[in-house]
Structure formats: C-alpha cells, structure tokens
Amino acid sequence: MPELVSHPIVSTSQEIASVCQAASQAAQPYAALPARDRARFLDRIAQQLECLGEALLQTANRETSLPLARLTGERSRACAQLRMFGALIRHDAWLDVRIEPGDPARHPVAKLDLRRTQIPLGPVAVFAASNFPFAFSVPGGDTASALAAGCPVVVKAHPGHPETSRLAAEAILRAARDCGVPEGTFGIVWGGPETGRALALDNNVYAVGFTGSLRAGRTLFDLAAGRRRPIPVYAEMGSVNPLFVLPGALVARGEALAQGYSDSLSLGAGQFCTNPGVLVGLEGLAFETLIDNVAERLKRIDPSPMLYDGICDAYVAGIGRLYEDRRLVCHFASDGTAAALFSVDAATFLSDPILREELFGPAAIAVRCVNLDQMRQVAEVLEGQLTATVHFEDSDVEAVRMLLPNLVRMAGRIVANGFPTGVEVSPAMQHGGPFPATTDSRSTSVGTAAILRFVRPVAFQDFPSSMLPTELRYGELAEFPA
User: Fold this and answer.
1) pLDDT at 304
2) Sign (positive/negative) of CA torsion 307, 310, 312, 314?
3) Is 314 left (phi over 0), alpha (psi -120 to 50) or beta?
4) What amino acid positions are annotated as catalytic residues?
C-alpha cells in the first residue's frame, strides 16, 4: 500500500486516473474475498482509528472548530458503523438470497433452477462531507458500506479538514496491510470541484456516494448520467426538515417545545442536514408565545465558529436576504454566525419557493397557518426532505391523521414528539428522502440498508452447485442440462 504525502495537495489528473485504475484492478480480487475477511478488515479499520487516540481528535478540532466532546462521540459512531457492517456481512441474510430448485419432471414445461444473490457494483467514489469529519468523511458510512459490499473505494477528501482526512486514510491503509487486502482497495484524492468532476467521469468508477450541497450533488448526478455508461449517484443534498406543532401540544408543553426546538436548531451551529429549519403552527397567542420563547433562548446562545469560510459566508448572506425581505417578521437576527428566527404567514410561504430553500446554519422560519387545512397545504407544498416532525397530544390525533400522508410522501423519516437532529446508527434507520433531499429516495446513507446501494442482483440459471457462489449452494442441483 502506498504511503500518503505528509501534507495533502491537489491531485493531478494523472494521479486521479492512477488511483481509479488501481481500484479497478483490485475490484475482482477484493470481491472474491470471503465475507469474514472483509468483516475483519472493517473491524481493523475501527481499531486503527481508535489507536490514533487524542491526536486525531485534536487535529479535527483544530481544522473544523467542532468541540472535542462532539468529535469523540462522532469517532465512536464511525467505529460502531464499521463494526455494524462487519457484523452484517458475517451472515448471508443481507444478500436477500432466493433459491428456486429446478424440477425437470414438471409438465408441460420443466421448471428451471434459479438462484438469485447480490454482487458488488465495482469501485465506488466517495465524496467526504464537511460537517462530519469522521462519520460522513474518509472513514464514514459510504466508505464502510461500500467496502462491506465488496467494492473498492476512492475517497475525495474534503478540503475543510485535510489533515484529519490524511490521518484517517492512513489508518485505513494500515488496516488493509494488516488484513492482506488487495492493493488499490482503498485510495484517496485531493482537491476541489475539478477533482470531483474527474472522479465522477472516470470509467473505472461504477457508483458515487455524496453528502453535501444541492448544487454540487446535482452537478455530480448530471455528470454521471451523461457518461457513455451512466452510473448511479447516491447524493444526500439538502433538507429544511419541517416541524409541525399541533394545538394540543402547544398548550400542554409550550415551554418544553421552545427549549427542545432552540436546542435542536442551534446544535453544532446548525450545521446538521437534519436541522429543523421550518416551524409550522396555527396563528394565535400560543404559537406567538412559542416563537417568542424560542427567540429568547436563541439570543442566549453564543455564536459558534462554522466549519469553514465558505459555509460561514453563505450563511451570513442568506440571513441578510431574509432580513431584507419585508414580508418576514424578524424575531432575532444579528451580524455574524448567530442563530436567527423569522416568521411569515402561510399564504406568503406557500407562494414563494425561495422561502422553502435550505439555509445551512442555525436559522429558522416559523410559518403561521390560519387553520389545519392551511397547515396541510404547507405540508403538501414542501419538496422532499430527510425528516418531518409532528408534535401532538391525544386531542390532536385526527389532525395528525390528516397530515401524515403528506409527511410520508415528503420525508424518509417521520418523527413523533421529538426532534430530528441526531441520527441513530442502527439497522432500521432511514437517512434519505425524495429529491432534493437525495437523488434516490429508495436508498439510505445510514443503517445496514446502505450496503444495498453498492450491489446489484444476479440470477444463476441451471448452474452446477460447484460453480455457484457459496450462499447459493443450498439444495441439490443437477449437472448441466443436456
């Protein structure tokens, strides 16, 4: 395995092509490794990341300004994710094997022997995210799930945390050496949009995993679709994650809602893809009180440094545009990266798509609806989301039933009486949703189902047992038919 340079530089086109070629050459031998060996590789990556100790955390803290406590938890999450996929592939259940033994005696036509399994797609390009330097970056969920599936991985490091990326990549390469994994199974490239473009267009890449902005994700999707051989792009891009508060919940626990919402909105300086950027309720004293209470809590939160200048500049510019929009009521906004809260009537919100776009950071728009039907219209007009949340009491059940079909249509995860920030790494998690939240609403980037993005089904017809993949060798199978 090659050693990495001590300070990341922008990869040349020749270097990018070389890394992708190495991944292509590793694809067949890596896919042929027994699943238990791939699982051991994933476990070893987790061990190597943990062995980096405080040095990795301090580096990430210096590059991202994220607090050490948050980074410690995130590294644990990334390691748990790697081990989760290792545990998954030690058993064949995830392959969704389907076996139908043949029956030559069936009349009037003999029954074919059909056996279906999943095989790896081939090398996967992973685009690291800025806001999770471990869990959605070099050693993150896309890397873990692709390696688990049997696919070599080429990561495009995020320029916002290059040294963190280098340390994590070296940990993966050490694990690969320790486990005897084919050379080229993991590689990393450096740079900006041009590097990403070259990676998405390289003929040795068979799929893309991406977490980031709508603009960048859509660009990658269009590039991949325009190739002579189009490839899938699994891009998680943006979401305003609406939170609906029904009347019973407002009356029963308005104070708790204000605290929970302001905490969720400002968590990590609002730099979560599940940040609840739209708050929807019925106009009146109870909802106005909630808005005022959220604003008061946000005012007491000191501004946090954002991940890098580009995100900060975009956030400040977005707040400025909202502040200048005279249709909005500004409840709290200030210079810099402080939290901000605006409100608007539902009729205006429904008529202006710009108000429904994501502003990445600790900002929200509260939407005042005149009745439950208008609240349903708000739910109906919102495009695809990662999450949708509804707070209710027993007295609100019929209203929830009215809203729920639109929430299900809109989002990949529906939250009841909670807050969407915080994504559990578990088999049942769905982290994805209809466009523009993602490019493929059938997929998830968190949870064990994430592995299914990087495999495709193959059926074997009338093959002798000795020539079949191991998982298909259940039951007797005759020799080749005459």
Assistant:
1) 80
2) negative
3) alpha
4) 236, 273
